[in-house]
Design brief:
Layout lengths: L3 H35 L3 E2 L4 E2 H29 L18
Antiparallel strand pairs: 1-2
Helix pairs in contact: 1-2
């Protein structure tokens, strides 16, 4: 019989991954469809079309944001902030 905690962990991980991939898909597929509409507006002080600006600046920022949300959600679901330190000397013997 599988460990219920392990099954719960992987169920939460799968859900988090699917939500993150869904948001990534919307950003990477949906945003290019909006570019012609957004190009009708210009970014003030830069004289750059808004669609071009959003695709070159906004998309990478959004992907970094999604990655950080995934990492934060994964940390919250496991309850582990960092890996435990290894208490071994240079020669591999356990430290006293």
């Amino acid at each position: 019989m599988a460990d219920p905690n392990a099954l719960s962990h992987w169920r939460r991980t799968k859900k988090l991954m699917l939500v993150t991939f869904g948001a990534w898909g919307v950003l990477s597929i949906g945003m290019p469809f909006l570019v012609p509409l957004l190009n009708l507006l210009n970014v003030p002080n830069l004289d750059v079309p808004l669609g071009f600006f959003m695709s070159t600046q906004g998309a990478p920022i959004a992907f970094l944001f999604l990655t950080s949300l995934f990492a934060r959600g994964k940390t919250a679901s496991t309850g582990i902030i960092s890996a435990p330190a290894d208490n071994r000397d240079d020669d591999g013997a356990a430290a006293q």
